[in-house]
Design brief:
- The complex is a heterotrimer of chains A (292), B (312) and C (275).
- Chain A is mainly α.
- In chain A, 75% of the residues lie in helices and 0% in strands.
- Chain A is built from eleven helices and no strands.
- In chain A, helix 3 runs antiparallel to helix 8 and helix 10 runs antiparallel to helix 11.
- Chain B is mainly α.
- Chain B has two domains: 61 residues; 234 residues, MetI-like (MetI-like fold), CATH 1.10.3720.10.
- Chain B has a two-stranded antiparallel sheet with strand order 1-2.
- The radius of gyration of chain B is 27 Å and the shape is flat.
- Chain C has a six-stranded mixed β-sheet, with helices on both faces. Chain C has a four-stranded antiparallel β-sheet with strand order 4-3-6-7, with helices on one face. Chain C has a two-stranded antiparallel sheet with strand order 1-2.
- In chain C, helix 7 runs parallel beside helix 8.
- The longest helix of chain C is centred in the middle third of the chain and has 14 residues.
- The chains are: A mainly alpha (292), B mainly alpha (312), C alpha/beta (275).
- Chains in contact: A-B, A-C, B-C.
- Chains A and B meet through helix 1, helix 3, helix 4, helix 5 and helix 6 of A and helix 3, helix 5, helix 6, helix 7 and helix 8 of B.
């Protein structure tokens, strides 16, 4: 007698295949959930906000009257914030990545720094706000300035930039380094003239993605105490200011229906900014992919 | 081709001349400078921990730590204030649980579809869309929860309050879904092809192979991705601040207003709780609790993925 | 120094396959009692070798015999591998390079290297060649232009690239890239050129061009070349060292090694019994 009943197996095969097909359909539907939500979200915000989006909206300051409310202070404020975050976080992030990839010896300090960076990436953004409030706003007496907010944000995105820069540096082939060392170049000359130029596209892509995270963050700035309502522009990094997501938060939490449309218009501006930044990152990535 | 004899100058000679003029030793300074930069990330962690510890100590000087963990009411603004963090933790867990119910099945199914069923072309379309979903600022999700999800849910369940746990919970789930999907997909993709081929060769269907062979092999990565996603949900701030309300509550009801730990910190920060008041210090005590929660979960995720990593 | 001297030396200075010191050839490298470990792995065992000026010295042997390790020790490139220990000494122009007070940058300015795989920088052809002079502080545009022309001519690639000096080096073919790497190496006018299997990634025609080039270059430089291709060693080198399991089995005039080897293992290898 045979242990396997072939006719029984054959009879069950169509059922098994049908279950496979059904589940494939279910998995596909689940995948569609994300896409559908994204479509609804874009559609809703676009239809709500487009009516309010015009030249005046971009040029006006915030106002108590929804029809006069504009986004000028927040838009310019976001640019100011980036002017602090971009140089500070890129310099610290790339510097750390170079240290870890090129100089660090294998010892407990290096391991500790690496573990620390991966844990820092998991700290909720609002906790960075508490750090900024205590250290930058109070202890260093920077008050609710562009600088205080910018430094807080820089620390928040630092771990993302470090990891991206590490990957970019690691992707530079070993033989380029060897070629440079072989000509009598020192380590720093090799890093500056060979490794960094080759890693720049990867660093920029990661950097822009990290900055686009910073430009949409709200929670740490609320904690730092950045005002929600402001009718002037900062003149120096020590002045106070507001940013796009804070302004949107302010409009969203108002009870009047009209302010929701203003908020939606603000979101469109923010999303366009993000799309532009992400497109640049993707362009850089595609242009410089597969170079070796 | 007599290179040396025809030349009017010697490169080696020039190199020697330049070398004698060299000034400061960059090679020694640069590594130290870079080490200092690397140290800043460590100082950030130390700064966070010290900040939270010091300010929390001041808070516990005024409010007993026993009350903080055992009292069941969080009424900081009452004339006789009460600081029992339980209601905030319950609010946070409610949001996290609802988010998990949305994100885990959808994220996992998406990961399975992308890694096992989808063609390369489909993957190339869907993955960037998920990246966009992951990159949307949380304040935008908060707006979406308040102005779209809540009204739709209220049409379905008329008893739902304007501020509730359900709507922000679902939206937080949508927010963390791409992360769960992408990390789980990484875990699935890293299961070697040969293991799948072994099952196919026995006549197993794709589904049977996925469930009985691929998923068990990738389970540590998947669990780690879920834990990380939930840790993100616990720390999520703007969605719950905008759509969750500001009523700390202990009950299990998801239809009425709640408050999470993060939303409380936002509520105090956007109001004008004067510097030095007990309420001011209470946000650090709450922040400390939040930090410990997420730290434990992140360490757990790292432990799972390291301890149970499959060696192929 | 020229070709006729080499010929003369081949006939007169060598007795019984062993190389006698002659007044005609000055030594560039003298290795004595060199041992090298990768962690616990004893990769080079008591190496004693002398290399001579304006000659091509070939190092042959099966994979894993230590020939690549040895050539990388000659410009201390081996230090890029973590956990490497050495004992013994390698004298370059009478100074021990394994002495840590010998700055590697100075050594590598004198001793250039060409690698297994062509490894031009992702820059223009011009920038590749001026890389070395520039990092060593030569900035004068006119001098750099001259160096570029002379180096590219020296590497027999000038005619192919003179009209597109500012195009990316990655547009060149593999053989051209390797000659560009040789030009890059010539640009700082090294004393010795180390070549680590320079043709292993190239097609036969490109290989031939490089071999011809090596013959030209030895008039001005001393060349040490690692190759897994015995015919190549026979064609281009003046002396050949046979490495096996981290030891020098035999080192002699190339003609002798290939026609009348002393050691049975050398004979087995060159006749293709293993390798």
């Amino acid at each position: 007698m045979k242990l396997i009943n072939k006719s029984h197996v054959a009879k069950r095969m169509p059922v098994r295949l049908a279950v496979n097909t059904i589940c494939k359909g279910l998995f596909f539907l689940a995948t569609l959930v994300g896409l559908i939500v994204l479509a609804i979200l874009f559609y809703r915000i676009f239809t709500q906000g487009i009516g309010h989006l015009n030249g005046d909206f971009l040029q006006n300051f915030a106002s108590r009257k929804p029809e006069e409310a504009g986004i000028k202070a927040a838009l310019i404020g976001s640019v100011w914030l980036m002017a602090v975050v971009a140089p500070v976080s890129l310099m610290l992030g790339v510097g750390t990545a170079i240290y870890l990839e090129e100089y660090a010896r294998k010892n407990w300090i290096t391991t500790f720094i690496k573990v620390n960076i991966s844990n820092l990436a998991g700290v909720p953004s609002i906790v960075f706000g508490l750090l900024g409030l205590t250290v930058f706003v109070r202890a260093l007496a920077l008050d609710r300035s562009v600088l205080a907010a910018g430094l807080t944000m820089s620390l928040l995105v630092l771990s993302v930039i470090i990891v991206a820069a590490q990957e970019a540096i690691r992707a530079v082939p070993r033989d380029l380094r060897e070629a440079s060392f072989g000509m009598g170049a020192t380590k720093w000359q090799t890093i500056r003239k060979v490794v960094l130029p080759a890693a720049i596209p990867g660093i920029l892509t990661g950097g822009i993605l990290a900055l686009s995270r910073a430009i949409g963050e709200t929670a740490p700035l609320v904690v730092v105490g950045i005002p929600l309502f402001i009718a002037f522009l900062p003149q120096t990094v020590l002045d106070t200011f507001t940013v796009l997501p804070m302004q949107i938060y302010n409009w969203t939490s108002r009870p009047q229906e009209e302010f929701q449309q203003v908020a939606a218009a603000g979101i469109i501006v923010l999303l366009i900014l993000l799309i532009v930044m992400n497109s640049i990152a993707v362009l850089i990535r595609n242009k410089f992919q597969k170079r070796y | 081709m007599e290179l040396r004899k025809t030349e009017t100058y010697s490169v080696q000679q020039m190199i020697l001349e330049k070398k004698s003029k060299k000034k400061v030793n960059v090679e020694k300074i640069i590594p130290k400078l870079l080490f200092l930069m690397a140290a800043i990330s460590v100082f950030t962690t130390i700064g966070i921990i010290l900040t939270l510890i010091f300010e929390t100590f001041i808070f516990f000087d005024r409010v007993s730590i026993v009350e903080f963990f055992t009292e069941s009411k969080w009424l900081p603004f009452a004339s006789v204030p009460s600081f029992g963090i339980m209601p905030l933790i319950v609010g946070t867990l409610k949001i996290t649980l609802i988010a998990a119910v949305v994100a885990v099945p959808v994220g996992l199914a998406t990961a399975i579809f992308l890694s096992e069923y989808a063609s390369e072309k489909t993957r190339r379309i869907i993955k960037p869309i998920l990246e966009v979903l992951a990159g949307i600022p949380t304040i935008v999700y908060g707006f979406f929860a308040l102005t779209f999800v809540t009204p739709v849910l209220r049409d379905l369940f008329p008893s739902l309050d304007m501020f509730n746990a359900l709507s922000p919970g679902i939206v937080v789930g949508i927010m963390i879904m791409p992360m769960v999907a992408s990390l789980s997909e990484d875990a699935l993709v890293s299961v070697p092809k040969s293991i799948r081929e072994g099952a196919y060769a026995l006549g197993a269907t794709k589904l049977e192979t996925t469930i009985k062979v691929v998923l068990p092999a990738a389970v540590s990565g998947i669990v780690a991705s879920v834990v990380l996603g939930l840790s993100r949900a616990i720390g999520e701030t703007m969605i719950v601040s905008v759509a969750g309300g500001s009523t700390p509550s202990m009950d299990m009801d998801v239809t009425s207003s709640i408050q999470t730990m993060t939303a409380y910190i936002v509520q105090v920060s956007s109001g004008d709780a004067g510097y030095g008041t007990t309420i001011y210090y209470s946000i650090y005590a709450v922040g400390m609790t939040l930090f410990v929660f997420t730290l434990v979960m992140n360490l757990l995720a790292q432990f799972i993925s390291r301890r149970f990593r499959e060696e192929y | 120094m020229n070709m006729t001297l080499t010929k003369e030396k081949n006939s007169s200075a060598i007795v019984n396959g062993a190389i006698q010191p002659t007044a005609l050839t000055e030594k560039v490298y003298e290795t004595s009692g060199l041992n090298l470990w990768y962690g616990e792995n004893h990769a080079l065992k008591n190496i004693n070798l002398d290399m001579h000026q304006n000659e091509v010295t070939a190092i042959i042997g099966p994979s894993g015999c230590g020939k690549s390790t040895y050539i990388k020790t000659l410009n201390r490139m081996i230090e890029l591998v973590p956990d490497v220990k050495t004992t013994g000494q390698i004298k370059y122009r009478n100074r021990n390079i394994l002495d840590q007070s010998y700055k590697v940058e100075d050594l590598r300015t004198q001793v250039g290297m060409v690698f297994q795989k062509p490894n031009p920088f992702p820059k223009s052809i011009y920038d590749n060649v001026v890389y070395g002079p520039k990092i060593h502080g030569i900035k004068n545009k006119k001098v750099l232009d001259e160096i570029v022309e002379k180096s590219l001519k020296g590497a027999a690639i000038w005619d192919e690239v003179k009209d597109r000096l500012h195009e990316n080096a990655y547009g060149l073919s593999g053989g051209q890239q390797q000659r560009l790497c040789i030009a890059r190496c010539l640009a700082i006018e090294p004393d010795v050129i180390l070549m680590d299997e320079p043709t292993s990634a190239l097609d036969p025609i490109s290989t031939l061009k490089i071999e011809e080039l090596v013959q030209e270059l030895k008039k001005d430089f001393s060349i040490i070349i690692v190759t897994h291709n015995m015919q190549q060693a026979a064609r281009i080198s003046d002396r050949t060292a046979f490495f096996l399991n981290g030891e020098v089995i035999e080192y002699a005039n190339t003609d002798t090694i290939f026609s009348n080897p002393d050691d049975k293992r050398t004979e087995d290898y060159i006749t293709g019994r293993f390798g």
